[in-house]
Amino acid sequence: MKTLTGYTILYDAECPMCDLYSRAMVATGMLDDGGRATYQQMPEAACPLVDRQRAMNEIALVNTETGEVQYGIRSLFKVIGNSFPVFNPLFGFAPFVWLMSKVYAFISYNRRVIIPAAVHDGDLQPTFRLSYRLIYLLFTSLSVGFILTKYAALLTEIVPIGGAYREYLICSGQVFFQGIIISLYRPVKRWAYLGNMMTISFAGALLLLPMLLIAKFISIPVTISLLYFMAVAGLMFLEHIRRSKLLGLGWLLTATWVAYRLGLLVLILN
């Protein structure tokens, strides 16, 4: 594997995903030992060359000899293409580059609601893009609705079968309901809270997948399926509390989040 020397990749110290893949690049020899640094502790040689806000939004790759700076998906393509030249034709294919740049932006502009970090006064934050947040809310709502629809089939002895779109309506309804609450209570936190809330729902839905997979091969008693669902819901509750504290929102949003779910459960069972 060929090492890309003379380059430093600048990543967000508050982003575990950024830390993970930049660390992997160094560990596997794609970058040399000094080939990564946080933009928060940017090397002095790179300071005049890098747009700090853009580096916050998109990981930056700095050529320490020429001063050239590449951002986002192009910086990753540069590192990967150097080690695996077979991919360079694909990385030069304009439609693929456009598509991957959108995927990268979707993750990057939502990374602080995917994996939250404590915010301190004076910290440089990723630029907020409403379009990417709305797409994220739509993606997670549809994904959670789909998985819950499948899981509901394991609970039919306890929970009545609903319409084809019941779970989708529940997910979108919670976004709408909590959106009203947060808009009245702390509107400045609206999109950060909704993004975090749907990340919790999405993570909870992913935790249901192993049970769905097992149910494909063996018959699972409904009590086991229910207990597993309740355990996942308990983890989601704890995570909601943790993230609400990070956002400085206290207990109100957690209380309304629980009330919405309990209210729907009562209506469904009746």
Automatic annotation (TrEMBL):
The keyword Membrane applies. The chain crosses the membrane at residues 86-107, 134-153, 165-185, 192-212, 218-238, 250-269. Keywords: Membrane, Transmembrane, Transmembrane helix. This is DUF393 domain-containing protein. It comes from Mucilaginibacter myungsuensis.
